Amino acid sequence: EVQLVESGGGLEQPGRSLRLSCAASGVKFDECAMHWVRQVPGKGLEWVSGISWNGGSIAYAASVKGRFTISRDNTKNSVYLQMNSLTVEDTALYYCAKGGISAAGSGSLFYFYGLDVWGQGTTVTVSS
Amino acid sequence: DIQMTQSPSSLSASVGDSVTISCRADQTITSYVNWYQQKPGKAPKLLISAASDLQSGVPSRFSGSGSGTDFTLTINGLQPEDFATYYCQQTFSTPPWTFGQGTKVDI
């Protein structure tokens, strides 16, 4: 069974940093693109960032570009989200998700068919 | 960015009803639409990918259709466990891979 487990969330002040981690099991991690999606409580889903199987392709939402950095370590079956210059608008539940099959090739970040496995999420609260 | 407009934002239905949720993209996305179900306090679950491909284990009462800019999710014979919020998402071409606003299906 494929499992994704996020960690690293918490309460942080505006302007500070947090690093989220997502550990995968039960999957050939180095063949998977990985994504982060966030959800403000009671609101909809917002795609945040994605990374291809080898880190060669990376993408960000405009709302986090320049502040957040996604990375991965295939030797540890893990993906990370470094969140700098946090603002109150970053307060949300952050999900790690595995990219589905891609028409552009295994583990590609593009032309993929959904996010087929999700973690349970980790909560980030930014407040003074 | 590609905008996904989902409708309705909420609907009330009864067990056994058939319901249809629509999602419209503001530009063509061929068949790169996916549908998710989210229950309170839980992570989203992928139901349908590529507009109409049912994920393994998803009941056949769920179906998806459409191509280009207009897509629908249909639930035939609503069951108690289907009361949830449903989201569409486009995964065409370049990011951001946007979600619709969500449709809450309640009793």
Unreliable residue stretches of chain A: none
Largest interface: A-B, 25 and 27 residues
Structural class of chain B: mainly beta
Identify the overall geometry of chain A.
globular
Q: Helical stretch count of chain B?
A: 0
Proportion in helices of chain A: under 10%
First-last Cα distance of chain B: 34 Å
Find the count of extended strands of chain A (DSSP E, 2+ residues). 11
Helix count of chain A, per DSSP?
0
Mean pLDDT of chain A: 97
Helix and strand content put the structural class of chain A at mainly beta
Task: Write down the secondary-structure element order of chain B.
Answer: EEEEEEEEEE
Q: How far is the N terminus from the C terminus of chain A? A: 40 Å
Form type of chain B: globular
* Largest β-sheet summary of chain A: 7 strands, mixed
The Rg value of chain A, from CA coordinates, equals 14 Å
Set down the secondary structure blueprint.
The complex is a heterodimer of chains A (128) and B (107).
Chain A: E1 3-7, E2 10-12, E3 18-25, E4 34-39, E5 45-51, E6 58-60, E7 68-73, E8 78-83, E9 92-99, E10 115-118, E11 122-126
Parallel strand pairs in A: 2-11
Antiparallel strand pairs in A: 1-3, 3-8, 4-5, 4-9, 5-6, 7-8, 9-10, 9-11
Chain B: E1 4-7, E2 10-12, E3 18-25, E4 33-38, E5 45-49, E6 53-54, E7 62-67, E8 70-76, E9 85-90, E10 103-106
Parallel strand pairs in B: 2-10
Antiparallel strand pairs in B: 1-3, 3-8, 4-5, 4-9, 5-6, 7-8, 9-10
Structure description:
The complex is a heterodimer of chains A (128) and B (107). Chain A is mainly β. Chain A has strands spanning 3-7, 10-12, 18-25, 34-39, 45-51, 58-60, 68-73, 78-83, 92-99, 115-118, 122-126. In chain A, the strands form 2 sheets. In chain A, strands 2, 4, 5, 6, 9, 10 and 11 form a 7-stranded mixed sheet that branches. Chain A is globular, with a radius of gyration of 14 Å. The model of chain B has no long low-confidence stretch (mean pLDDT 96). Chain B has strands spanning 4-7, 10-12, 18-25, 33-38, 45-49, 53-54, 62-67, 70-76, 85-90, 103-106. Chain B is built from no helices and 10 strands. With 107 residues, chain B is mainly β. Chain A binds chain B through residues 37, 44-47, 50, 59-62, 95, 100-101, 109-116, 118-121, and chain B through 1, 32, 34, 36, 38, 43-46, 49-50, 53, 55, 87, 89, 91-102.
